[in-house]
Design brief:
Layout lengths: L13 H23 L3 H8 L3 H9 L6 H10 L15 E3 L24 H4 L4 E3 H6 L3
Antiparallel strand pairs: 1-2
Helix pairs in contact: 2-3
C-alpha cells in the first residue's frame, strides 16, 4: 500500500532490505572498532584513508562496498563471513488496546526515564516478523 509496508499483503521491499543490510554492515564495522579497542582516526590510518572517510562510511551517506568493508574489518583484526537466509517478510499488526480505567481509579503520570514493556511500546504499530525473530523489537 505504501513505502512503509503497512499493507499486509505487500511484496518484499528490496530498497528497505538494502538499507537494512547497509545498516548491519555499518554496525558490524562499528562493533569491530570497539572490540579492537581502536578509534576512528587509527582505523583511518590503518586503511590509508582520511579520517573524514571513516565518518562518511559509518554515517549511512556512503554506499559501502564489500572491498571497503573487508578493508575496515581487516584493519580491526577481523574478517567478514556472509550467509544467506530466506527473506522473512510477513508484517504483523498489533491491535491497539486501551486500558480500562474506572472513575474511582487514580491516574498517575509515568515517570520520565521509566522503561516501558515492549508490548506497550509497540501497541498499534506494524512491524516485520523478522524484527521479533532477531530480537530487534
Amino acid at each position: 500500500m505504501n513505502k512503509w509496508g503497512i499493507n499486509i499483503s505487500s511484496p518484499v521491499d528490496a530498497e528497505l532490505l538494502e538499507e537494512a543490510a547497509l545498516a548491519m554492515a555499518q554496525s558490524t564495522i562499528q562493533n569491530a572498532i570497539t572490540k579492537a579497542g581502536i578509534n576512528k582516526a587509527e582505523l583511518a590510518r590503518k586503511m590509508d584513508r582520511p579520517r573524514s572517510f571513516i565518518s562518511l562510511m559509518l554515517s549511512g551517506r556512503h554506499n559501502l562496498t564489500v572491498k571497503t568493508m573487508s578493508r575496515a574489518m581487516t584493519a580491526c583484526g577481523f574478517e567478514i563471513r556472509f550467509s544467506c537466509v530466506p527473506i522473512a517478510w510477513s508484517w504483523k499488526t498489533k491491535i491497539p488496546t486501551q486500558p480500562v480505567i474506572t472513575p474511582h481509579e487514580e491516574q498517575v503520570p509515568a515517570q520520565a526515564g521509566t522503561p516501558m514493556p515492549v508490548s506497550e511500546q509497540l501497541t498499534g504499530i506494524a512491524v516485520p516478523t523478522l524484527a521479533y525473530q532477531t530480537g530487534v523489537l
